[in-house]
Amino acid sequence: MGKVEEFQELRPLLFSIAYRILGSVSEAEDAVQETWLRYDASPTTPASPKAFLSATVTRIAIDVLRSARVRREEYVGPWFPEPLLDDPYEDPERAAELADSVSMAALLLLERLSPLERSVFVLREVFGFGFDEIASTVGRTEQACRQLLVRARRHMQDGRPRFEADRAERQELAARFFDALKGGDVDGLRNVLAADVQLVGDGGGKAPQLARAIAGADKVARLLAALFPAMLRIDLTLEPHQVNGQPGAIVRDRDGKVLHTLALDIVDGRVLTIRSIVNPDKLAHLGPVADAWAINDQVRAALREQP
Questions:
Q1: Where are the domains of the chain?
Q2: Are 132 and 108 in contact (CB under 8 A)?
Q3: Which helix (H) or strand (E) holds 274?
Q4: Which positions ≥6 away from 127 have C-beta within 8 Å?
Q5: Which residues in the chain show pLDDT less than 70?
Q6: Which of 78, 82, 101, 252 sits at 20 to 30 Å (Cα–Cα) from 242?
Q7: Residue 111 and residue 114: Cα distance in Å, rounded?
Q8: The CATH fold of domain 167-305
Q9: Which contiguous run of DSSP H or E holds residue 237?
Q10: What is the structure's pLDDT at 143?
Q11: What tens digit of pLDDT does each residue of 211-242 get?
């Protein structure tokens, strides 16, 4: 097998590692591309292409994350990861770890970790790499990597998402949520929302937010029940879709352009968090992006016209 074929076979794994470290589709794709350039330029073929490529993409991602953290501290409003619709890497033996580790909740917890802690946690807990491989990758001893993992686990443990084990139950609850959303059904929404549900948006200062972060089942239900029927009246469409391994949706304008994504955290049979990503920079990898400012004006006009 030649270099090109080996790289293409491992590309899904490399992207999945980089995305979990970076929380950005575009930055992960850039890291994978840089990994290929280094692999292609290497005069020798490594004994283990998987080990070489995984180590290379991790090191690149660590360097990118160190500079990205400064930008994220200056970010306008809440910062969320770029939405991922489909994780290209599959491993039946680690399916649960892969699905949970790509969720918005888990990625936001990973933001608490240092770049090294985050990388060690991802390589060990999510992808099952050995400590010898991890030590070689991050340039630390195996003992140091074990200590990094202990610290990372401690940081992650308190806020670790407790998602429902049954995917079918989550999808059924999400379907009820979206039906009530489209129908403007306040009671239907209340029935599926946790008492302390939070609705939070990421516009990054580059798109309007129809509502600031709000909490509480009644407030969230009333806002959504008013907002979404008005959006549908101006021909926006709501397309249910997995977002970061959890139930969610893509909202599109009448031309099919992406306005925003919704991702739901479902815990104990209720929707606990609704995250909306409106920042156009974070949606560009999904296709053409809608004019959120123009649509904001149209939605507000539709809300004023409601009886």
A1: 3-158, 167-305
A2: no
A3: strand 270-277
A4: 13, 16, 17, 94
A5: 159-165, 210-211, 307
A6: 78
A7: 8
A8: Nuclear Transport Factor 2; Chain: A, (3.10.450)
A9: strand 237-243
A10: 97
A11: 678 999 999 999 999 999 999 999 999 999 99
Dist CA 73 CA 82 (whole Å): 16
What is 179-219 written as a DSSP string? HHHHHT-HHHHHHHEEEEEEEEEE-TTSS--SS--EESHHH
The C-alpha R_g of the chain, in whole angstroms, comes to 21
| Distance (Å, whole) CA 20 – CA 56 | 15
pLDDT of amino acid 55 = 97
Residue of 133, 256, 240, 112 whose CA lies nearest to 182: 240
| Rounded alpha-carbon distances, angstroms, from residue 263 to 15, 140, 249 | 21, 36, 7
In angstroms, rounded to a whole number, what is the distance separating the alpha carbons of residues 226 and 257? 23
CA angle 216, 220, 222 (to 5 degrees): 125
Render pLDDT for 153-172 as a digit per residue (tens, 0 to 9).
Answer: 998 887 665 555 577 888 99
Is the CB of residue 246 less than 8 Å from the CB of residue 103?
yes
- 3-158 topology per CATH: Butyryl-CoA Dehydrogenase, subunit A; domain 3 (1.20.140)
276 DSSP assignment: E
Residue 269: which region, alpha, beta or left (left: phi > 0; alpha: psi -120 to 50)? left
Residues belonging to the chain? 307
The pLDDT assigned to 307 comes to 64
For 43, phi and psi rounded to 5 degrees? Answer: -70, -20
